[in-house]
TrEMBL record:
CDD domains registered for this protein in UniProt: BACK_ABTB1_BPOZ, BTB1_POZ_ABTB1_BPOZ1, BTB2_POZ_ABTB1_BPOZ1
BTB domain sequence ranges: 115-182, 273-344
Organism whose genome encodes this protein: Plakobranchus ocellatus
UniProt name for this protein: Calcium-independent phospholipase a2-gamma
Ranges: ANK repeats: 35-67
InterPro entries: ABTB1, Ankyrin_rpt, Ankyrin_rpt-contain_sf, BTB/POZ_dom, SKP1/BTB/POZ_sf
Length: 476
């Protein structure tokens, strides 16, 4: 429903609603409808410059010389919007925040740190990580187990091998996305077939077909770069990298089920761990590259030598305290796959651990999960939790929940106490000063009112708030 609302807002030019959907509801700006069109395309087509600018600032993709970019340019209603598209080259903090996992993997691909294999493709050196390639591609898993076993450098000098095509394949394996010059698409398809990446071959051929068809209907337009962003790319990436987390578990926590994962128990690939974490006398065999890149806490422990490691057998061991096996297993899942099971009985413990391990993304996931457990009886405590851990979105969702259930919440003593505390925090409070929680609730009551009956309902709720403030002898 939110996605349909997003498209409608972009077509109608409702910036206020769009901001609410993106910033509070956290709806993705690059979603596609059944016609393979994005919100940005419709905003350009309908001539809403302010919507176009907002979407670009929030990270909507519109690269020049790509199918998406050329389509938006060609369909833009005004020259003003075309000029905006051509001149906009900003990667904002919002883009990075919304794609933390993809950004982490992109940097991992570009970084040489903890790389344990080097590919030499016709003299061009490419650093990579065996664990990621093995988890993402059965072909690489088999090669690292056989022909490339114990090789630090792999020479790839086949006449038909293109360095750019090989790097594009690695980009897909690391991030789930791919960019390749149109002239090199055939080389990329051949290499993908050799690597047994059938889904990638289908995706590339389908995108190329759509691009060529669109080009033929728009004289003078030429797409030079193929950008591939499959709809299920993140889900596929998370599923594959979750295997690394599963294989890192100690035997006591592992229960193999034949056929459950792409690899059967007897054919589990080598995962090439380089660090071991010990929790309650159980050892997790992991990879420094994931932990250091995702957490400043672990980066300090593993790189800056805080003295918490010891060597045992072939791997250094880090002893972790104040964390249970169950919680660490879920933290492990998040670090590798950006997802984990967050049921009500454990989400608070995971939130505390995420805060301790400096994992802001996991804290936000906890906030998202906690929002689904909102009830009249716990909404005030949820607000307090959101403030303690800096979960701004959760606090907004709590305020929206209260606005929708005002008559039940407003009579509660804990809610009244929260209002009193918020009012007391303003030193030398004047009559015109606002109260945070009251302002938030009023916003959700008053916003998006469209009919007369909705207006009457909103006014009734606002009067309830005024009555409570009068009862508490607070100006608000």
């Amino acid at each position: 429903m939110d996605i349909q609302d997003l498209f409608h807002s972009c077509k109608s030019g409702d910036l206020h609603r769009l901001q609410y959907l993106v910033e509070v509801k956290d709806v993705e700006v690059d979603v596609r409808d059944k016609w393979d069109s994005t919100p940005l395309y419709y905003a350009c087509l309908c001539g809403h410059r302010n919507i176009v600018e907002y979407l670009l600032e929030k990270g909507a993709k519109c690269e020049a010389n790509t199918f998406e970019g050329e389509r938006c340019l060609y369909g833009a209603l005004t020259d003003d919007i075309r000029n905006l598209l051509k001149s906009f080259h900003v990667i904002s903090k919002h883009t990075i925040r919304r794609d933390l996992f993809e950004e982490f993997l992109r940097k991992l691909l570009e970084s040489k740190q903890y790389s344990d294999v080097v590919f030499n493709v016709h003299g061009e050196v490419v650093h990579a990580h065996r664990c990621i390639l093995s988890a993402r591609c059965l072909f690489f898993a088999q090669m690292f187990k056989t022909r490339w076993h114990d090789r630090q450098t792999v020479e790839l000098n086949h006449a038909n091998m293109s360095p750019e095509a090989f790097k594009a394949i690695l980009q897909y394996l690391y991030t789930g996305h791919m960019e390749i010059a149109i002239d090199l698409v055939d080389s990329c398809i051949k290499l993908a077939r050799q690597c047994q990446l059938a889904e990638l071959v289908d995706e590339v051929e389908d995108r190329l077909k759509k691009t060529r068809y669109w080009e033929s209907s728009k004289p003078g337009v030429r797409v030079t770069t193929l950008v591939l962003s499959p709809a299920n790319s993140k889900e596929s990436l998370q599923k594959d990298l979750a295997q690394l987390a599963h294989w890192a578990l100690p035997d006591a926590l592992t229960s193999w089920v034949t056929g459950e994962l792409p690899f059967e128990p007897e054919t589990i690939p080598l995962t090439f761990p380089d660090i071991c974490f010990e929790v309650d006398n159980h050892r997790f065999t992991c990879h420094k590259t994931f932990f250091c890149a995702r957490s400043d806490y672990f980066k300090a422990v593993l790189q800056d030598h805080f003295g918490e490691t010891e060597c045992s057998e072939s791997l250094p061991v880090v002893h972790l305290h104040n964390v249970s096996l169950d919680v660490f297993a879920r933290v492990l899942s998040y670090i590798y796959s950006d997802a984990c099971d967050l049921h009500p009985d454990i989400v608070t413990d995971i939130l505390l651990t995420a805060d301790m391990y400096l994992l802001p993304g996991l804290k936000r996931l906890c906030g998202v999960a906690m929002a689904t457990y909102l009830e009249v009886s716990n909404v005030v405590s949820m607000i307090q939790t959101s403030r303690l851990f800096g979960l701004v979105r959760l606090e907004s969702q709590c305020a929206e929940f209260i606005a929708n259930n005002l008559s039940k919440v407003i009579a509660r003593d804990d809610f009244k106490q929260l209002v009193v505390e918020d009012a007391a925090q303003i030193e030398g409070r004047e009559e015109t000063d606002s109260i945070d929680i009251i302002d938030e609730i009023r916003f959700y009551i008053s916003s998006f009112v469209q009919t007369y009956s909705e207006m009457e309902e909103a006014n009734d709720k606002l009067r309830l708030i005024d009555d409570v403030l009068e009862e508490l002898d607070i100006e608000g």
